[in-house]
Specification:
Blueprint (H helix, E strand, L loop, with lengths): L4 H17 L1 H8 L7 H25 L2 H19 L13 E2 L5 E2 L23 H20 L5
Helix pairs in contact: 1-2, 3-4
Protein name: DUF3040 domain-containing protein
Pfam families: DUF3040 (PF11239)
InterPro entries: DUF3040
């Protein structure tokens, strides 16, 4: 069922707000499943499968079981290489947990202790101004929609 014009407008506003509030997260969500270099992986994997198939034929013709087994392993490895996704290099970006104020730190159990010490955890910081007003606007719109009885059902 397609979205109504009003729902499409709300969705685009929410997307724009997400881009403004957290551009790193938004760009991570836009990433595709297949990244650059996948064509090379497919070619290399396909070549491994073809070489393995040729070796399998040679192994059967010469009746050498070892060659046949190696050919099978080569074909299996080529197929696995072709369909696997390349590992992303771990960049210098932050690792760990995101605190309520938006900063990052080590995840629980990593590095420093996360127990509140002097000056830590004594006061709670407010969420970012943009995100709280966005949520308030969404709640107001939802209440308005419910009060008006305007549902698609």
């Amino acid at each position: 069922m397609p979205l109504s014009e009003h729902e499409q407008r709300l969705l685009s506003q929410m997307e724009q707000q997400l881009l403004n509030d957290d551009p790193k997260f938004a760009s991570a969500m836009k990433g595709s499943a297949r990244r650059g270099g996948s064509a090379g992986r497919l070619l290399l994997g396909g070549a491994g499968i073809l070489v393995g198939l040729l070796l399998l034929v040679v192994g059967v013709a010469t009746q050498l079981t070892v060659v046949g087994v190696l050919a099978f392993v080569l074909m299996l490895g080529g197929a696995a290489w072709a369909i696997s996704t390349p590992r992303r290099p771990s960049g210098p970006g932050p690792r760990g947990a995101v605190r309520t104020d938006g900063s990052t730190g080590p995840a629980p159990g990593q590095g420093r202790s996360t127990a509140p010490g002097p000056g830590r955890g004594a006061r709670r910081s407010r969420p970012a101004r943009g995100s709280s007003s966005f949520m308030e606007r969404m709640e107001e719109r939802w209440q308005k929609r419910r009060d008006e009885g305007g549902g698609g059902r």
